[in-house]
């Protein structure tokens, strides 16, 4: 490098290393935090250095280019969401409790590949050609031990039972067999107290008023749910952001024969085009040779450094 004779001398490498670089790291760098991984018995197994998700988010909020990505998807029109749906448009993000069935009294279930809810209406097709239309789901439960495991084609303990009604009057039970399903030819059968059981070919959501489900309001074909904002504002308080994170780890054997790997993070609430590059990945921890990278995730569950984002947003 050519240096003008009248220009000030550049700083020495020692000054850069010991003075300038620490200042840069302190102002813009990501802090490394020491954690200790333990096994199930509480015995320490490895000392790790990690960069917490909270520190990553804090730093990305400091720069306009990355800050805007946290709420960029809020600016899309309905047509853009239909043409190019993102992760934030999925039911898993918009209504996670119903997708995971995590509520205390589950009102929904999946049957023959369809999501159904109490209050929905279905058509039941029988193997003999008959079809029962516009039946409303009024309850769903697992048959208890009192039903027994009799070999006859009846309701058995452990079977999943859907109670249906017509016009407000209980009509019968749609039973998904758990016991002896292979002995009776079909997984589902229709049970009525007076007429006995009938083998069921399939069930379909009833199409009424253009809707297929009464609780979800879902339309045949899978219309996107109404989007919830990633950035919300309220009078007299700071803005709140919803940030969804995905963590992944890898381990591999290097040429020296020892195992190494790392744990990384991705912002799922960023636009897809902005999070598929290597630069969008955030490093949580790099494991030393011979140390399982899963220990970093275990430390997150114990310490809970994964769950400190509320202090940021």
From TrEMBL:
It comes from the Eukaryota. This is Uncharacterized protein. It comes from Porphyra umbilicalis (Purple laver).
């Amino acid at each position: 490098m050519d240096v003008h004779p009248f220009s000030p001398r550049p700083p020495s490498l020692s000054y850069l290393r010991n003075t300038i670089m620490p200042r840069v790291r302190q102002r813009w760098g990501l802090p490394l935090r020491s954690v200790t991984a333990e096994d199930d018995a509480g015995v320490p197994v490895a000392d790790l250095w990690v960069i917490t998700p909270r520190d990553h988010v804090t730093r990305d909020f400091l720069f306009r280019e990355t800050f805007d990505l946290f709420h960029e998807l809020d600016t899309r029109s309905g047509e853009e969401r239909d043409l190019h749906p993102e992760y934030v448009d999925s039911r898993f993000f918009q209504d996670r409790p119903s997708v995971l069935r995590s509520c205390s009294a589950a009102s929904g279930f999946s049957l023959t590949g369809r999501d159904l809810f109490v209050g929905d209406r279905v058509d039941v097709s029988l193997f003999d050609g008959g079809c029962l239309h516009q039946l409303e789901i009024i309850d769903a439960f697992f048959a208890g031990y009192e039903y027994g495991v009799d070999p006859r084609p009846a309701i058995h303990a452990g079977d999943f039972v859907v109670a249906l009604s017509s016009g407000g009057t209980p009509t019968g039970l749609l039973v998904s067999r758990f016991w002896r399903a292979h002995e009776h030819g079909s997984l589902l059968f229709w049970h009525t107290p007076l007429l006995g059981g009938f083998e069921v070919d399939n069930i379909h959501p009833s199409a009424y008023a253009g809707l297929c489900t009464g609780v979800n309001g879902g339309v045949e074909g899978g219309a996107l749910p109404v989007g919830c904002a990633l950035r919300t504002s309220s009078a007299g308080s700071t803005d709140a952001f919803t940030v969804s994170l995905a963590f992944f780890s890898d381990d591999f054997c290097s040429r020296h024969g020892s195992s190494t790997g790392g744990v990384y993070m991705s912002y799922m609430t960023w636009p897809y085009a902005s999070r598929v590059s290597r630069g969008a990945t955030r490093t949580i921890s790099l494991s030393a040779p011979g140390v399982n990278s899963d220990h970093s995730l275990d430390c997150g569950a114990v310490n809970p450094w994964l769950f400190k984002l509320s202090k940021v947003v």
